[in-house]
Known about the structure:
It is a single chain. This protein has a single domain (about 5-215), classed as Rossmann fold (3-Layer(aba) Sandwich). The chain is globular. By secondary structure, the chain is an alpha/beta fold. The protein has helices at about 10-25, 40-50, 100-115, 135-150, 150-155, 170-180, 205-215; strands at about 5, 25-35, 55-60, 120, 160-165. It has 7 helices and 5 strands. A 5-stranded parallel beta sheet has the order 3-2-1-4-5, sandwiched between helices. The termini are far apart. Helices cover about 35% and strands about 10% of the residues.
Amino acid sequence: xxxAIILLSGGLDSATCLAIARQEGxxxxxMSFAYGQRHSIELEASTKLAQxxxxxxxxxxxxxxxxxxxxxxxxxxxxxxxRIGTKDDIGIPNTYVPARNTIFLSYALGWAEVLGCADxxxxxxxxxxxxxxxxxxxxxxxFETMANLATKxxxxxxxxxxxxxxxxxxxAEIIKRGIALGVNYSxxxxxxxxxxxxxxCGACDSCLxxxxxxxxxxxxxxxxxx
Length: 226
């Protein structure tokens, strides 16, 4: 079985990516990040998912993206609420973490080279999402091109593939795919601004997109809301 690294945030999308990688026959290696986010409960979710899917190794990497600021997810800045579908639903929201996916994928690329792994999965989506620039197809293509120029393994002939199986799916389609593959969404966490006991706020972009996905999929929403 070929190895694959899955960037595992603990959210709905990354959980579905993990299930897809397993279905495709890969040996699973997961990488999560404690990057200074206010919602560290997602790391508990990623651990539960890794255990549920029999991940061979789950690395939680500690970095401090809060050192640069620029995002409400790594600071005390208020997370925008009830924005989706309103006049405020324009531009890139302050929940965008500068260069986050670039940094995460770079760490995964380094680990992939050590593991002798040629496949990395990331659950980016370009349909039901908040408009983050590092979720666009152009970014994914550019990073894959760079990765195949940047490392010893690739220079010596091992081509790295960046898998984005959710890129052109709606949230409802993602949920249906995940349920068919046995994902237990009750152990995932998506909220940007959870309560101290870990319950979802129900009003941030991520919560609203998640609610929309379950409703459009005709599936009961198992999320614990505050």
